[in-house]
Specification:
Structural class: alpha/beta
Protein name: Alpha-(1,6)-fucosyltransferase
Strand order of the largest sheet: 10-9-8-11-12
Keywords: Coiled coil, Glycosyltransferase, Membrane, SH3 domain, Transferase, Transmembrane, Transmembrane helix
Helix content: 40-55%
Organism: Timema tahoe
Family: Belongs to the glycosyltransferase 23 family.
Shape: globular
Number of domains: 4
GO molecular function: alpha-(1->6)-fucosyltransferase activity
């Protein structure tokens, strides 16, 4: 039965390559059918482009074969898929169990059967590569059309209808194939027999981290405990301040110091942190009369330390982002695509426990906006221990559009159309399952609400236009501004997908918090600008999973297992990286690289017992 499903995948992936071959073949005919009177330099340029496209096509075919082989070797030898496929394709399969190439199991919801790490890695890689191929083919077809039109205007006019046909094929057949593949890969994670295990493992690991943090923050004797003092009043916005606090908590966890939060005269709320969120400890919230030394102290032996902002941190410890505790990594890699995001999500889950008044504010806003829980459908979103959200509920998509304080400083202007394009693509996929089109809009520009309702009348837009007046720089440090940003981040993080700019602290913060309420939401975003980063991070590593030979045009060579610093992903199927081995910077195909987890030895807190199955 796994062979049947693999054949479906490989046939559809093969069709993608066939479409690419169509573009190359058509272009070849145009080239060889040209008049001998045309310029030789044009001939040379076009021939070079053809050679480049043919090389890319060879790489895509190799990639397709590699995926097919690896799926057969490790990806689909999983238990539950036999029962699922027997339901779907019973006439094609013999009934005798011994003839099935899959192992039988006792229950489709067995939480004791864990997936191989290789299977999870390959499943996520295929999903990402489908997106990369979509970007690559789309951008190449558009580029080819522009180049032919500029170099050969007369010929371009004659073959215009053929080019339109190629573009139509790319936009329809490939787009539909891409949607189906992403949809099937998503469903595969539900029916492969491991979904119950993933959810159970996510719950258990989250519970372990929350208990470790509670243990650290509630020492038996506060006066004897090692303490790390963190001041909340960093002169920046709310998202930046929360990221600063999370950095403090990570250092406290790594050094086994109880974190003492100094939030007096907090810029966002003069009453301090504890009037908005729960205190970080039940019995140790004050630094008392003890003597404190500025980090890193003397020989690391100081009992009490004052932690500076990460911008001024000397002798940085190994725990800084994007490091992940070594004891968690093997377990995380089996159910999450970006372990650091899960780790920081757990830190934020502990820190951002609302006071009763804050929870009331959120609930009243949800009722007023018509934002009702549960709102997420297909994702296995963990609401309560051992309990998943209703899979039949409508999707609510979130869009974070920010235009005031970041423009001309950290981020460029992006139009409504740029934000809505990934929304449209996402809902085009979900329409296979009959989901409702809804968006939660977080923005500092009130005109965006009107613009989206006019240009996209089929969408239900949820948001608070009246709160926009409190998003200006002049009103930033006010209770109304705090309420607005709290609500936006809450609703953004309770989404199934986020469209934002990662140059925005709010966009990154919502993406991080989202991880604490989903089994794996690592791919549940679309950033219009930056790759994900954490302020003060030491590095962001990727690794090469396929070799690459540069063809010039700003590309660099890769060997398998090369470690890379990621700079940017482009929407044409390429990424800008620095190869640590060679020291060279340049472009590489996105499907040839993947995220590399930075595993670091943290304390394991043996006093906190592991949860029993």
């Amino acid at each position: 039965m796994n062979v049947i499903r693999v054949n479906v995948f490989t046939k559809r992936l093969a069709l993608i390559v066939v479409l690419w071959l169509f573009v190359i073949g058509a272009t070849s005919l145009w080239f060889y059918g040209r008049s001998y009177n045309e310029e030789k330099d044009e001939q040379s340029t076009l021939a070079k482009k053809l050679k480049e496209y043919e090389r890319e096509n060879t790489e895509l075919k190799t990639f397709l074969d590699d995926i097919s082989n690896k799926i057969l070797e490790s990806g689909f030898h999983v238990p539950n898929i036999a029962k699922q496929l027997l339901k779907e394709e019973k006439p094609k399969v013999k009934e005798k169990p011994e003839e099935l190439p899959l192992k039988p199991i006792e229950s489709i919801n067995n939480t004791n059967i864990s997936p191989p790490h290789e299977y999870e890695s390959m499943r996520r890689r295929i999903f990402n590569n489908v997106k990369s191929l979509w970007y690559l083919v789309g951008s190449r077809v558009n580029l080819l059309r522009k180049e032919l039109s500029s170099m050969l205007p007369k010929l371009a006019a004659r073959i215009g209808s053929t080019l339109e046909l190629a573009e139509e094929h790319e936009r329809t057949h490939y787009e539909v194939l891409s949607r189906y593949l992403k949809n099937e890969l998503s469903v595969m994670g539900e029916v492969d027999g491991f979904s119950a295990w993933r959810e159970n493992e996510a719950i258990k690991l989250s519970d372990l981290i929350q208990r470790r943090l509670k243990f650290l923050q509630n020492p038996p004797r506060c006066d004897k405990a090692k303490k790390l003092v963190c001041s909340l009043n960093k002169k920046c916005g709310y998202g930046c301040q929360i990221h600063h606090l999370a950095y403090c908590m990570i250092i406290a966890y790594g050094t086994e110091h109880t974190l003492i939060l100094d939030s007096k005269e907090w810029s966002y709320h003069k009453g301090g942190w504890e009037e908005v969120f729960q205190p970080l400890s039940n019995n140790c919230t004050d630094k008392g009369d003890a003597n404190f030394t500025l980090w890193p102290g003397i020989d690391g032996k100081d009992q009490n330390l004052l932690l500076p902002f990460v911008d001024y941190l000397k002798s940085p410890p190994p725990y800084l982002p994007l490091a992940v505790p070594e004891d968690l990594v093997p377990r995380l890699l089996k159910f999450h695509g970006f372990p650091f995001i899960w780790w920081i999500g757990q830190i934020l889950k502990y820190l951002l426990q609302p006071q009763e008044t804050t929870q009331k504010l959120i609930q009243e806003a949800a009722n007023k906006l018509g934002f009702r829980q549960p709102i997420v459908g297909q994702c296995l979103q963990v609401k309560e221990k051992g309990k998943a959200l209703n899979a039949k509920s409508p999707f609510c998509y979130r869009v974070h559009i920010r235009r005031t304080d970041k423009i001309n400083r950290e981020a460029d202007f992006h139009s409504v159309e740029e934000y809505m394009q990934p929304v449209e693509e996402f809902y085009n996929t979900l329409e296979m399952r009959g989901k409702t089109k809804r968006i939660y809009l977080a923005t500092d520009d009130p005109e965006v609400f009107k613009e989206i309702k006019i240009k996209y009348p089929k969408y239900e837009v949820i948001g608070s236009p009246e709160m926009v007046k409190y998003t200006t720089l002049e009103s930033r440090y006010s209770d109304e501004s705090l309420s607005g940003i709290l609500l936006d981040i809450h609703f953004l993080s309770r989404s199934d997908y986020i469209v934002c700019t990662f140059s925005s602290q709010v966009g990154r913060l919502a993406y991080e918090i989202m991880q604490a309420y989903n089994v794996d939401a690592s791919e549940s975003y679309f950033s219009l600008d930056d790759v994900y980063y954490y302020g003060g991070q030491t590095h962001h590593y990727y690794e090469a999973v396929y070799p690459h030979k540069s063809n010039g045009d700003g590309e660099i060579d890769l060997n398998v297992d090369d470690v890379l610093n990621i700079n940017k992903h482009y929407f044409n199927g390429s990424s800008h990286v620095k190869n640590i081995r060679t020291g060279k910077e340049g472009l590489v195909p996105s499907f040839k690289i993947q995220e590399k987890t930075e595993s670091v030895l943290f304390p394991t807190y043996p006093e906190v017992f592991l949860a029993l199955d």
